[in-house]
Design a protein that fits this description.
about 25% strand, alpha+beta, 6 strands, 5 helices
Length: about 140
């Protein structure tokens, strides 16, 4: 199936498609850091604390995030725990991410993974794949 999907992607029929087998998912260590994103920045206006915004950040932090939340404290780039700061209008926080934070039990993914595991128990770990494509 991977080779079939690869040809579809090459022909432009599934731009942005990606897939992973259950065997690959089951082997992921939830304590590892995601490949593309190092953390998440959340912020809210001091006058409207109920309206929070959030953005995943890579290293270096994207310019549009820095223009919104300002320059974070110097130690936030290597922080292993949550770091908070304020600007004149915003309350901001940075938290480093792990795979478990993104895919773990407090997310929507465990339901998908439970179905994949049940299918893998029946058809084998390499016979079950999650295919994602964005158009």
């Amino acid at each position: 199936m991977r080779s079939e999907l690869g040809s579809w992607v090459a022909q432009g029929e599934m731009d942005g498609a990606s897939w992973i087998t259950w065997a690959e998912l089951a082997a992921i260590d939830p304590a590892t850091t995601p490949e593309h994103f190092v953390g998440r920045v959340t912020w809210h206006e001091k006058s409207q604390p109920a309206i929070r915004r959030s953005q995943l950040v890579s290293r270096p932090w994207p310019a549009e995030v820095l223009s919104t939340v300002g320059e974070p404290p110097a130690d936030s780039h290597s922080a292993s725990e949550r770091v908070e700061w304020t600007t004149s209008d915003l309350v901001c926080a940075y938290e480093p991410l792990t795979i478990g934070d993104v895919l773990g039990p407090t997310t929507h993914w465990p339901h998908v993974f439970a179905v994949m595991k049940a299918l893998a128990d029946r058809f084998g770990n390499d016979g079950v794949r999650l295919v994602v494509a964005f158009d």
